[in-house]
What we know:
17 strands
Amino acid sequence: MRLLLAPLACAALFPAAAAALQYPQTARGDVVDDYFGTQVADPYRWLEDTDSKETARWVQAQNRVTMPFLKALPTRETYHRRLTELWSYERYGVPYRKAGALFYTRNNGLQNQSVLHVQDKDAKEARVLLDPNTLSSGGTIALTQWEVAPDGKHMAYGLAAAGSDWNEFRVLDVGTGKPLADKLLRIKFSGISWTKDGKGFFYTRYPDPPKDAKAKDQTFDDLAHQKLYYHRLGTAQSDDVMIYERPDQPKWGFGAEVSDDGSFVFITTGSG
């Protein structure tokens, strides 16, 4: 209850500051969507482009207003100290075995992201396989998913920057803990399913935007025409084999899962 009342308390403690807050003006675009004959305006669509300079400037302007106010709150340090105490406990993810090795995540309590560990077959102790906290200086790159090959030699994993849904897929050598040169882009809402020989995996991706497309170009849809591909380790993404697409259903998404005996790949479709 005290947390819910905190905003009201802030206004009471700093009535002059609250009244003096001047929020930056937010530009309104002219995007209008047609939903079965109903026109729906979406003037702030431009803010969905998290990589644009305009969005970065908007965030910076908002922070210049917000952060000084929050830092001046007299109870801020009290809440920070108590929340730190509550979050500071060791926790583990659910472990699973692959090719005799045990894989699991562990967080010491105050790490921004849990660290992926592996305990090799017959090993007495686990070792760090991938620590996403070290992938960027600001800790803004997240480990979104990971899938170990059936033979346990390689792991495909997804990385996302600054909270984006867009992923970059990479491949790690489990034995050495070092990443391979493989890099797959234009990925969103994709799974990873290895072939039984451990030589590659199935995944989905969206087409590259036209070279002359701009951030606000409404003629190109980032989330249309997803396709299912097979990537073979050690090859360029441009050499990936396209397995399935539905040009007649541009909004459909796909998933793939290799059968237990490795003879088939099951393809699922979804809309929306």
